[in-house]
MADS-box domain-containing protein
Amino acid sequence: MLDSLFFSVANHTVTVVGTDGSYLKPFERSFIFITTGQTVDVLLEANQSPNHYYMGASVYSTAGIGAYNNSTTTAIVEYNGNCTPSLPPVLPDLPSHSDTGAGLNFTASLRSLADKEHPIDVPMEINTHLFYTLSMNAPCKNRSCPDGKIRTLATVNNISFINPSIDILQAYYCCIHGVYGTNFPDVPEFVFDFTADYYPMDWEIPQLGTKVKMLDYNSTVELVFQGTTLLKGSDHPMHLHGFQFYVVGLGMWNFDKDKDPLMYNLVDPPLQNTIHIPKDGWVAIRFTAKNPGVWYMHCHFDRHMVWGMDMVFIVKDGESPEAKIKKVKLQYISNDSARKASFKKRKKGLMKKASELTTLCGIDAGAIVYSPYDSQPEI
Ligand SMILES: [Cu+2]
């Protein structure tokens, strides 16, 4: 989980048909671009002359050579039947390690099927606008730490995520205070030219914190990720748990809030859970917060994740029973047959809740259930 990759099969094209578990309008390419945490479904037609062909993958990296593995990983596609294979097999032609345009062009080609059998549900009226910068940071003044070591952190909206000692889900569920703050900012505190060539070094110093963004149930969210060139910047595969989101726009340089939304694809945007934000670029996603709970969002490059490029959404409970994670409904059901029919399920739910309170929250909880349907109360 370190780098994005180009992949190709020599002398063949592939038909791209899906990503992150959702269908796409099929399109042909001589290579695919895939970032960590993503899936891409392709069809390969063995329609070339019987032979042996290399398939290969190479790293896409905006860092200089030496900062990543410059080799090509390979395996061989062999056609069945009688043939005299070329020796060595033909190698695929892959884009260069820094070909940002090749990756961006591939990502921008993804389109949902968006037909009668596969309708899309992209939110059109947005009530929650978020703008998150993604940065590499240096925690010590002038990049020089007291112990002489060079250290790097990574941030979302200039906040480097600190892992709490108690899980945020546990703290939320059990109402344990002091574990996290609910003031994750909707926009960066400090707005500057995010893709400039030079900055004062002081701007590289991040805040540290464990902060979450609270979302009302069924909020319609638009989130723009903006890469910055602090510490020369990097690309970032951003991954959201708990949701699939529509990727409605992407581009290079600073996001323009007046012009760029006019170019959004709201007709057939791809439905994904991981999206590659190019270095010096931006990506806009939309989703409806209809999954109550605690959801982690992070860069899928392992090093960026442990350096703090993470945050958490908490989606509050909604009104209906299906939209709640926290409460047990104890209201009396007046209809006799409905009460009897749902008794077993409700009893099981209550017992599960008592058990969760004990194991998860450390509370000595118990339940005694009397009913006309059992001869003995259940404890
Ligand atoms: Cu990253």
User: Anything to note?
Assistant: Residues 288 and 315 are 10 Å apart (CA to CA). Residues 343-359 form the longest helix (17 residues).
